[in-house]
Design a protein that fits this description.
By secondary structure, the chain is of the alpha/beta class. Helix content is 37%, strand content 21%. The chain starts with a helix and ends in a 17-residue tail after the last helix.
Length: 449
């Protein structure tokens, strides 16, 4: 790939795990909207649950998640008390005929929760929601937190998917990002999870990290492949020190440039595909028999706040500080500050403080952007059928983009706007063409490659 092309399309754009993106949420949507949206969840509807644990026992400098470091367990215990309260309140509002098809524990580091507390939290969920028999229960795992008792507790709650943050195994890189984690630790944690019945293991790997080189990343990918994960998420490090001040601990001069980042991404992807993994969207890889690979081949791949997913549930309920929920009507986000979050849930049981209500144009553009991110294409006929009044505008935008596309990133054939192989690495930049809000100056984003 030519350096000039990489530089041309590397400008900062959203990751498009939602549309409109979070910078456009406002207090115009709040608790009253949230209550009505919860009440509208129908009997028999599939729903997903996300539970956020915003604590870590160490703070990784690269992290852009909403979390805080604590060396004491008391704040975690207090927070969990509030989370139980919110689960009970929301569960009381949602029809017991609605079926939970996925429950994801994210963070932060949910694996720092003590074993008895993790079991008690899952019990509160099952007491207040109806779980489908084949519900997927996934947990973000930090091998440094894990011991036999925690592994046993995760087996008790029925964990089916384990997601291990690896980032990079190179000692110099790990020191620079404050994430010391040996290969042996990681391998032991994965083996312990599998021994307890986990059927799917995901490994997160980052490129674009401080002091990372093409050669060190190759060694990390080789090590990851030896762990035989079912899925690999290959993310570009998002350097956003204006938003996450702890990232200022990473010197700017230690970071690879845009072209080097692209080369790292391309080489890692090449190694994963050569090892037999299917490329899924812009940054996921899965074994051909994995449900994510099936969803991609069958056109069922979706994208939400956790990234790519095969979860078909249209409704995602976010619980915990800063958690975001997605409903047919729009998005809601809980209070990010943990102290204020606890004050809200102790008062009313709910903590929604901002969000976004969809317009018809939002729904149209969300579909187009999601199709580009998941399928690298969208059909004019499909959008015309779904949005007969509004579709003409985005179709015209697609034709205009193609007419000006001297770089060969896209084609239009038989009414399909499609990214070429040359264009796929720049899917975020192409998707941004259809973002009606991007130019209004709200929000700053990471580079697109």
């Amino acid at each position: 790939m030519e350096d000039a092309l990489i530089l041309k399309y590397s400008g900062p754009v959203p990751r498009y795990t939602s549309y409109p993106t979070a910078p456009h949420f406002s207090e115009a949507v709040g608790a009253a909207d949230y209550e009505s949206w919860l009440d509208a969840i129908g009997a028999g509807e599939a729903i997903s649950l996300y539970a956020h644990v915003p604590y870590c026992d160490r703070l990784c400098w690269f992290c852009a998640c909403h979390t805080k470091q604590t060396l004491r367990y008391d704040p975690v215990a207090t927070y969990l008390h509030g989370l139980h309260r919110e689960v009970a309140e929301i569960g009381g509002r949602v029809s017991r005929e609605a079926k939970v098809t996925a429950l994801h524990f994210g963070g932060g580091s949910p694996t720092l929760v003590r074993p008895d507390d993790m079991i008690a939290l899952k019990r509160t969920f099952t007491d207040h929601f109806t779980f489908a028999p084949d519900c997927e229960i996934s947990v973000e795992m930090d091998p440094n937190d894990l011991d036999e008792a925690r592994h046993d507790a995760l087996a008790v709650i029925g964990m089916t998917r384990a997601s291990f943050g690896i980032q990079d195994f190179d000692p110099e890189v790990q020191k620079a990002i404050n994430r010391i984690q040996t290969f042996e630790q990681t391998r032991g944690a994965i083996e312990a999870s599998r021994a307890r019945g986990v059927h799917s293991v995901n490994c997160d790997v980052l490129y674009g990290l401080p002091y990372q080189s093409l050669q060190s990343l190759e060694r990390t990918i080789e090590a990851v492949l030896s762990l035989d994960p079912d899925r690999v998420a290959l993310f570009g490090y998002a350097h956003v020190p204006w938003m996450k001040t702890h990232q200022k601990m990473i010197p700017d001069e230690s970071l690879p440039g845009v072209v080097e980042r692209f080369e790292q991404m391309a080489r890692a992807a090449e190694m994963l595909v050569a090892a037999g993994y299917d490329a899924i969207g812009i940054d996921h890889f899965a074994k051909p028999g994995d449900s994510l690979a099936h969803a991609s081949r069958e056109g069922r791949l979706r994208r939400n706040f956790q990234g790519y997913t095969d979860d078909a549930a249209e409704t995602l309920v976010g619980l915990g500080a800063s958690a975001i929920g997605q409903f047919r009507q729009g998005y809601v986000q809980n209070m990010p500050a943990t102290g204020e979050y606890l004050r809200h849930v102790e008062g009313t049981g709910l903590a929604a403080v901002r969000g976004y209500r969809f317009t018809p144009d939002d729904r149209l553009r969300a579909k187009v952007i999601a199709d580009i991110m998941c399928r690298f294409a969208f059909s004019f006929e499909e959008v015309e059928q779904a949005f007969p009044v509004l579709a003409g505008a985005v179709i015209e935008e697609a034709r205009l983009f193609r007419a000006r596309d001297a770089d060969g990133l896209t084609t239009i054939e038989n009414g399909i706007f499609r990214l070429t192989e040359r264009g796929r690495p720049f899917a975020r930049s192409v998707a941004a063409t259809f973002d009606a809000y991007l130019g209004n100056g709200r929000g700053r984003h990471s580079v697109a490659v």
